[in-house]
């Protein structure tokens, strides 16, 4: 773990804490109990327990969609936790509520909405729940459609809401198939289509422009799950088809983005956005003890959650203040670096006969597997290589992919199983581009180890 700037961070936090404390200088003196010796002992024990973790913060970790928060995010979050605001009502967090509204408005502008309704929530699952809940109020009892590669929570959330759900076939690029979608829409009982811009397994991008055209013709609502890919709206290096899909978010009805992924935020920080502010009518409720300090909009009046950490909003606002959401800015350059890293890794994998590749990366997710003649052997060797890479200090993940998708590419493989375990790397950290040679070297070392153990 890099602690090079630790003292500088602590000094910045000290100064900011003094500035914060000065705002409450007129209060009568109050000193909270502080037992430094006991707290220090527990903190040391805590730190030792936390060492039993994968190195999520390091570029050698490329498994799940994890990256460390930006220093300004973690410092701003720690600063706000000194007063622990609650962004349910303005009386619980007047300053942090204002910062949340500003931060969310910046996200809305990023996807092309000057007017919107939205707020932060615990993550993509809760954000998608709110979007589907609003959709179910607008189209009660009507089906929700999403691709078979969409996040599993859409089916589960639909069940929670009592709404029928159908998984739609994908095309050769693991995208929602417009022809299959049109067949489902022709039935006449669909209320909402979920479009995924960055599937969890492969980073696939559904064809949003085509889906919007079909949905409008059938009077169907379109919700965009851009929890992973939404920030790439700013990336200059996005492929033309991907850029077109991201630009088309402006025509959707609702959208989810996760700042705790590419937005450099600590968990949990998701965001749900609605293009039409009038959907606020579905949130209206009465509370006998909140919303009394102001006639302004309280964020709890447009959220299914009640208590929500104001410190999360403060961290996001501070990050966007330092790194504005601009197409040619410093933040966008980090996205382009992740894209470049994924494309470079894919090119190396594709050129290496010992590996089978899956899809050319649309964002920064890359999937591949060790070459073998049978799918079950591919899966077995993938799991072995996963373990061998970890022994080399390179942390990847395993994704099980449908044989129907892989068979279109792996023509030399006999498919004796319906799903095949493959390796997956998520190069979400901009530093992955600089570390690519190291990652590749360790992957090759792990591959030699895996091959040696597989040979009779």
Helix-strand makeup class? alpha/beta
- SSE string, helices as H and strands as E: HHHHEHEHEHEHEHEEHHEEHEHEH
Give the count of structural domains.
2
How would you name the CATH homologous superfamily of the largest domain? Type I PLP-dependent aspartate aminotransferase-like (Major domain)
Describe the global form.
globular
The span between the termini is 40 Å
What fold name stands as the CATH topology of the largest domain?
A: Aspartate Aminotransferase, domain 2
Proportion of residues in helical segments: 40-55%
CATH top level label of the largest domain: Alpha Beta
Order of strands, widest sheet: 1-7-6-5-4-2-3
Low-pLDDT segments, ≥5 res: none
> Largest beta sheet, briefly?
7 strands, mixed
Describe the structure.
The chain contains 14 helices and 11 strands. The chain folds into 2 domains: 94-322, 3-Layer(aba) Sandwich (Aspartate Aminotransferase, domain 2); 336-454, Aspartate Aminotransferase, domain 1. The mean pLDDT is 95. With 456 residues, it is of the alpha/beta class. The chain is globular and about 75 Å long. 40% of the residues lie in helices and 13% in strands. It starts with 5 loop residues before the first helix and ends with a helix. The strands form 2 sheets. It has a 7-stranded mixed β-sheet with strand order 1-7-6-5-4-2-3, sandwiched between helices. A 4-stranded antiparallel β-sheet has the order 8-9-11-10. It has helices at residues 6-22, 36-50, 71-80, 94-110, 124-138, 153-161, 178-185, 208-217, 240-247, 310-322, 330-351, 375-391, 403-406, 436-454; strands at 117-121, 143-147, 165-168, 190-196, 221-225, 254-257, 270-274, 355-357, 365-370, 397-402, 419-426. Helix 12 packs across helix 14 (436-454).
């Amino acid at each position: 773990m890099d602690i090079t700037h630790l003292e500088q961070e602590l000094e910045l936090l000290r100064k900011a804490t003094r500035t914060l404390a000065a705002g409450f200088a007129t209060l009568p003196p109050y000193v909270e109990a502080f037992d430094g010796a006991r707290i220090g002992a527990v903190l040391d024990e805590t730190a030792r327990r936390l060492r039993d973790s994968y190195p999520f913060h390091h570029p050698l970790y490329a498994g799940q969609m994890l990256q460390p928060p930006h220093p300004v995010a973690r410092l701003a979050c720690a600063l706000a936790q000194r007063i622990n605001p609650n962004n349910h009502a303005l009386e619980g967090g007047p300053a942090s509520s204002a910062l949340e509204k500003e931060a969310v408005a910046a996200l809305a502008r990023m996807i092309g909405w000057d007017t919107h309704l939205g707020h932060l929530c615990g993550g993509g699952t809760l954000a998608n729940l709110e979007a589907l809940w609003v959709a179910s109020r607008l189209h009660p009892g009507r089906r929700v459609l999403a691709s078979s590669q969409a996040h599993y929570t859409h089916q589960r959330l639909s069940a929670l809401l009592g709404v029928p759900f159908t998984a739609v076939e994908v095309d050769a690029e693991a995208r929602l198939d417009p022809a299959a979608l049109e067949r489902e829409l022709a039935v006449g009982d669909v209320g909402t289509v979920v479009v995924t811009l960055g599937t969890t397994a492969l980073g696939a991008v559904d064809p949003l422009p085509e889906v919007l055209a079909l949905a409008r013709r059938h009077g169907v609502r379109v919700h965009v799950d851009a929890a992973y890919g939404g920030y790439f709206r700013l990336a200059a290096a996005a492929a033309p088809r991907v850029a077109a899909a991201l630009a088309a978010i402006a025509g959707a009805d609702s959208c989810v983005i996760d700042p705790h992924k590419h937005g450099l935020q600590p968990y949990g920080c998701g965001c749900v956005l609605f293009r039409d502010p009038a959907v606020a009518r579905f949130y209206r409720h009465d509370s006998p003890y909140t919303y009394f300090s102001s006639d302004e909009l309280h964020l709890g009046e447009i959220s299914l959650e009640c208590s929500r950490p104001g410190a999360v909003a403060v961290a996001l606002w501070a990050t966007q203040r330092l790194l504005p959401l601009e197409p040619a800015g410093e933040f966008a350059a980090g996205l382009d670096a992740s894209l470049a890293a994924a494309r470079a890794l894919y090119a190396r994998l594709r050129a290496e006969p010992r590996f089978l590749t899956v899809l050319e990366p649309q964002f920064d997710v890359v999937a591949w597997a060790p070459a073998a003649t049978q799918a079950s052997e591919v899966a077995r060797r993938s799991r072995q290589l996963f373990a061998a890479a970890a022994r080399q200090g390179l942390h990847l993940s395993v994704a099980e992919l449908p044989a129907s998708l892989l068979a279109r590419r792996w023509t030399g493989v006999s498919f004796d199983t319906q799903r095949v375990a493959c390796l997956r790397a998520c190069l979400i950290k901009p530093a992955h581009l600089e570390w690519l040679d190291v990652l590749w070297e360790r992957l090759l070392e792990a591959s030699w180890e895996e091959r040696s153990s597989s040979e009779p």
